[in-house]
């Protein structure tokens, strides 16, 4: 459905996209994950034919994407990172206006507008101006303006930035609902939890390059970490660290601010072995966590830095 | 198309800050001008009470007394003369019962207690008398045969300098302020144009990005935005014109069609200027607003909005500025319609304004029609 080949975009000496290759299938929720400045928004802007790029090819629905490819544009809906609505128009007028840029026919447009209002739960706010809405409601209006025309492909660029947890959950549920109704979704975010929660396939971007791509299980299987054990409130000597490092399946140990982090490969009984050692050495400790690897661990192992850095 | 027009109209009308500059501010300024100038216009001079202290037996003194008598009898009733002794005259002057004392002696003189407009008028009368007396003396001594002609010339003086009108139109010294104000209102369409540019250029706002990625043809969007913005601003200026003409009773002459045409071209320049400045580069919004405000205010200042003589001074020392300043051209073209009957000058102004509107409009269009950007 979407094919991005060898895409290169430079801003002077800065390479924003470095031979980016992506392929997105119809019906999936495709996550673009990466820290700020990794090239997610630039990739989206190139995909939408807004930005000139230096090299590469972009195909959407089997056609090369150009600014005047209006037939393709008709089937795309975009929810931008920053809220993009008219302050001078009410909620209903905004949705109706943007829907009208895609759909002709007053009756059809009206029906689609009402459906979009219902979908994002803004029925009680239709006459309000954007400045009268809370941050969460404003985000919902932003989404409604992008999806009112019921597009085949929806691109969502960090739609949950600065949104309260309740609104965030509603937005994520809405995205899944749209996908169930048949829309293909490209979802960019730097919140790995969100991407893990809703995306069927994920590409991790860093410095304009796609460093890993696949389902979340596939991505996690690419790294060594099978289990991460965190021990809080622990008081121990540095000399104990080599002993822990020598425990079976342990490949990385860090001790900072009375917190011990032990990374082990995917084997059983790692936690038992670590706790036994601490008991043997009579080392006091507070809370203990054992976690399976996250996308942050994937990013950390591949790039050597945290996703949130 | 109707959908685009409807919502562009709604947005422009509800854009409070831009509409304030485009219509509310000129209306307020017009009202302010009206009250300021109508008071000045209605401030008719009162008859100035003066005392005459006569040095009897002197021929020059008698001539001066005759001059003052004539002035007192004149229709203008500029002075009221009371013959007093010097002592009484000084007392009355101290009590502010009279404005000055004329001394009719060999060399007539004036005594005043303070400085002001009335005192200046009395001084002018005295100066005028002295000048004419000197001239008559010179003529009598050097060319006595020309004395009769000289006397006739002096008596006709007031007719020679009397204010005349052209085509029976009343010359209003304050009209040019209102014309400069209309020029300013036209140029303030730049604020509406600026807002439009922000919503068209994807490298300037997120809203423009959202509009740019829709399947609506780019040129259609640009055309509708420019057209509606121009139409709204033209209506704004027409409201101002109607307010001036029907509420404040400013006389724009009989050729209102020509006046409206000037306003239309002026609005086009204002809106195009706003779109052009708004679309230039990707600088900060406040900087661009500052540039636009500075350009429009300087143009209006040079067209005589604050100082009526400014345009004449520029015409005298650097006329090219008046030929290139849109505000000066608009007010000049309006002046041609209201006061002068000078089609050639009106035509020259209009051609220059149309060229400006064309260049700015084309420049603005070329700026906003872009579909792809180097950076956003």
What does this structure look like?
The complex is a heterodimer of chains A (309) and B (376). Chain A is built from 11 helices and 14 strands. By secondary structure, chain A is an alpha/beta fold. The longest helix of chain A is centred in the middle third of the chain and has 16 residues, at 165-180. The two termini of chain A are 33 Å apart. The two termini of chain B are 28 Å apart. Chain B folds into 2 domains: 8-38 and 173-368, no CATH class; 48-161, D-Maltodextrin-Binding Protein, domain 2 (3-Layer(aba) Sandwich), CATH 3.40.190. The A-B interface holds A 11, 45, 48-52, 67-68, 70-71, 73-74, 76, 78, 80-86, 88-89, 93, 97-98, 100-102, 109, 145-146 and B 3-4, 7, 10-11, 14-15, 202, 205-207, 209-218, 371-376.
Write the layout of secondary structure elements.
The complex is a heterodimer of chains A (309) and B (376).
Chain A: E1 2-11, E2 14-24, E3 29-33, H1 40-47, E4 55-60, E5 63-64, H2 70-73, E6 76-79, H3 91-100, H4 106-120, H5 135-147, E7 153-157, H6 165-180, E8 184-189, H7 192-198, E9 201-206, E10 209-214, H8 216-221, E11 227-232, H9 240-245, E12 250-256, E13 259-264, H10 270-280, E14 288-291, H11 295-303
Parallel strand pairs in A: 3-8, 3-9, 6-7, 7-8
Antiparallel strand pairs in A: 1-2, 1-4, 4-5, 9-10, 11-13, 11-14, 12-13
Helix pairs in contact in A: 3-4, 3-5, 4-5
Chain B: H1 2-14, H2 16-42, E1 48-54, H3 59-73, E2 79-83, H4 86-94, E3 100-104, E4 109-112, H5 117-142, H6 147-155, H7 157-161, H8 175-187, H9 189-198, H10 206-212, H11 218-247, H12 256-279, H13 285-302, H14 310-317, H15 319-324, H16 326-338, H17 343-368
Parallel strand pairs in B: 1-2, 1-3
Antiparallel strand pairs in B: 3-4
Helix pairs in contact in B: 1-11, 2-8, 2-9, 2-11, 5-6, 8-11, 8-12, 8-13, 8-16, 9-11, 9-12, 11-12, 12-13, 12-16, 12-17, 16-17
């Amino acid at each position: 459905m979407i094919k991005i080949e060898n895409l290169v975009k430079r801003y002077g000496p800065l390479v924003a996209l470095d031979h980016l290759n992506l392929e997105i299938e119809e019906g999936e929720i495709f996550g673009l994950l990466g820290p700020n400045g990794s090239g997610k928004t630039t990739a989206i802007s190139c995909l939408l034919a807004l930005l000139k790029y230096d090299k590469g090819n972009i195909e959407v629905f089997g056609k090369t994407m150009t600014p005047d490819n209006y037939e393709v544009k008709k089937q795309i809906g975009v929810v931008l990172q920053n809220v993009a609505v008219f302050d001078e128009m009410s909620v209903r007028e905004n949705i109706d206006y943007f829907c009208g840029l895609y759909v002709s026919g007053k009756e059809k447009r009206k029906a689609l507008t009402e459906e979009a209002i219902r979908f994002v739960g803004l029925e009680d706010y239709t006459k309000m101006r954007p400045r009268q809405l809370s941050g969460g409601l404003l985000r919902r209006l932003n989404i409604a303006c992008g999806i009112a025309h019921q597009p085949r492909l929806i691109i969502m660029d960090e739609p949950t930035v600065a949104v309260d947890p309740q609104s965030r959950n509603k937005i994520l549920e809405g995205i899944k609902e749209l996908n169930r109704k048949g829309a293909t979704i490209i979802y960019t975010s730097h919140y790995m939890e969100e991407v893990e929660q809703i995306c069927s396939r994920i590409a991790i971007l860093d410095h304009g390059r796609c460093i890993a791509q696949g389902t979340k299980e596939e991505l996690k299987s690419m790294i060594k970490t099978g289990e991460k054990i965190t021990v809080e409130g622990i008081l121990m000597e540095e000399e104990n660290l080599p002993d822990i490092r020598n425990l079976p399946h342990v490949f990385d140990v860090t001790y900072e601010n009375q917190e011990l982090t032990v990374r082990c490969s995917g084997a059983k009984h790692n936690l038992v072995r670590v706790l036994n050692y601490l008991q043997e050495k009579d080392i006091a400790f507070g809370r203990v966590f054992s976690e399976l690897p996250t996308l942050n661990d994937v990013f950390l192992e591949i790039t050597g830095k945290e996703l949130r850095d | 198309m109707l959908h685009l027009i409807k919502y562009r109209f709604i947005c422009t009308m509800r854009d409070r800050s831009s509409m304030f500059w485009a219509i509310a501010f000129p209306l307020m300024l017009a009202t302010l001008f009206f009250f300021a100038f109508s008071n000045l216009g209605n401030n008719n001079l009162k008859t100035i009470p003066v005392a005459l202290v006569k040095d009897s037996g002197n021929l020059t003194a008698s001539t001066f007394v005759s001059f003052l008598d004539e002035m007192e009898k004149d229709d203008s009733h500029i002075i009221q003369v009371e013959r007093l002794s010097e002592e009484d005259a000084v007392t009355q002057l101290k009590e502010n019962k009279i404005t000055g004392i004329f001394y009719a002696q060999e060399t007539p003189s004036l005594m005043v207690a303070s400085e002001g407009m009335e005192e200046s008028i009395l001084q002018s009368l005295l100066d005028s008398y002295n000048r004419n007396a000197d001239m008559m003396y010179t003529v009598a001594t050097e060319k006595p045969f020309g004395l009769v002609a000289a006397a006739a010339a002096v008596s006709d003086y007031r007719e020679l300098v009397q204010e005349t009108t052209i085509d029976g139109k009343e010359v209003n010294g304050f009209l040019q302020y209102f014309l400069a104000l209309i020029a300013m209102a036209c140029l303030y369409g730049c604020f509406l144009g600026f807002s439009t540019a922000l919503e068209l250029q994807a490298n300037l706002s997120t809203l423009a990005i959202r509009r740019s990625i829709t399947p609506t043809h780019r040129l259609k969007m640009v055309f509708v935005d420019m057209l509606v913005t121009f139409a709204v601003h033209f209506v704004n200026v027409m409201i101002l014109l109607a307010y001036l003409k029907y509420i404040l009773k400013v006389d724009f002459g009989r050729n209102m069609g020509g006046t409206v045409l000037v306003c239309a071209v002026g609005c086009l320049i204002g809106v195009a200027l706003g779109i052009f400045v708004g679309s230039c580069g990707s600088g900060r919004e406040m900087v661009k607003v500052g540039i636009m405000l500075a350009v429009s205010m300087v143009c209006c200042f040079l067209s005589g909005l604050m100082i009526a003589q400014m345009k004449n001074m520029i015409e005298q020392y650097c006329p090219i500025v008046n030929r290139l300043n849109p505000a000066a051209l608009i007010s000049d073209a309006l002046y041609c319609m209201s006061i002068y009957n000078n089609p050639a000058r009106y035509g020259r102004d209009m051609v220059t304004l149309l060229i400006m509107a064309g260049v700015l409009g084309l420049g603005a269009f070329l700026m906003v029609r872009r579909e792809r950007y180097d950076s956003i």
